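User: structure tokens for DUF711 family protein, please.
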Amino acid sequence: MAKPFKIRTVTSFVAIDASDFNNGALEQKIGRCSSLLRDIVSLLTKDGYDVQTVRIATNPFGEWLLPTNDTQLSVNDKAAAISRLHMLNALLGKHDIHFCSLGPSMKVEHTVNICPLIVSFSPGRFSCSANINACDVDSSIVAAKCVKLISSREQMEAHANDSAIIGEGTHLDGGLGNFRFCTASYVRCGIPFFPAAKAPSLGEGDDGSIKFAIGLENGTYAGMLLKEAKSIANVQRVFSEKWRNELLPIQRICEEYVNTKQSTGPIEYLGIDTSLNPSLDHNGSVARAVEHLDEVRGNFGQGSLSAAAAVTIALQSIPDIKITGYCGLMLPVLEDQRLAELGMMASSTSRIDIQKLLCISSVCGVGVDTVPISGEVSDENLSSLMLDVAALAGRWNKQLSCRVFPVPARRAGDVTTFDSPYMCNSCIFELE
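Assistant: Done. Predicted tokens:
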């Protein structure tokens, strides 16, 4: 029987040490991650699941990518980082791993100098994030500058100063580099989704085990569940019954694998990120799924905040399911056909905007995601948005990220022209 949703990712988490690049340990760790991922995919596929991607996330790159922990980065530091990125890139290619998050930047110097370097590496395998806490103005300004730099291929080529790094690929064209960079606020280990995913830091929760988690693509199934619920009052009951029954087989497969494989090295199953996550299919929109509830008026209008809160509470309290990650309502504008449509509404009362996305983030988690903005946005305006996201995360103890796409030569109201299998198009959002 066909499953009602897909598995977007099986993500493994591994802590890397700088010494791993000199003693063969890096190849061993990547090899262990790859073996685990292939085993889990094989078991899930055998049980009828469609698994889309496998991914690896590391501890914060500042712990292992640079030869020193000095505040000021030298030319030699950058050269060493490039050398290690080449080595890791080759190993990931050898094991056919196409997605690898290198964790967050924890220092402004790393954000401005190293994050663009990571994102620029051909063929676009690497992603990363920049940590921003509430009221951290310096970090937000630097992150805003980084986002704008990444949006321009020409500026990225100048920053890398090495044509071999960027190559001839399209991974930076039209602002697409920011698909693999975000700011992350109060984000914990165990999120299987990129680019915020990270493994535990060395000495802080890292026990030497290879960890893994499951992320889903379930917009169509979300629509089925919320249509059945019909009212916000029924969301908890429907999700507790139906969602639990669908997730238990995945959990069983993962837990049985861990129990049979401990002799090959320590493995830890972190759980399932139960988030509602859209697809680009016609019926795959999470926003459209929420509109099935009677209390949601008009075009994702009044009642949508209450609906988002009800769904998030249900997702975070599914009986007998081990959860990890965001476990919230994902509303990425360029990955959800209905949200993209709402972004192009002629009427301001129907059109969704950044303030509404921020408002919903206060109850549903995840943050502001894949929002197209003008390439002419000022550092200050972009920084303020990042600070707003960080403030929400800090005030309400939520894991939130901010991923925006400054589009070169576009202004608010213009329609985007992205050519990506992972995104749809919408209007440029206004950011004042």
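User: Anything notable?

Assistant: The chain is about 40% helix and 15% strand.
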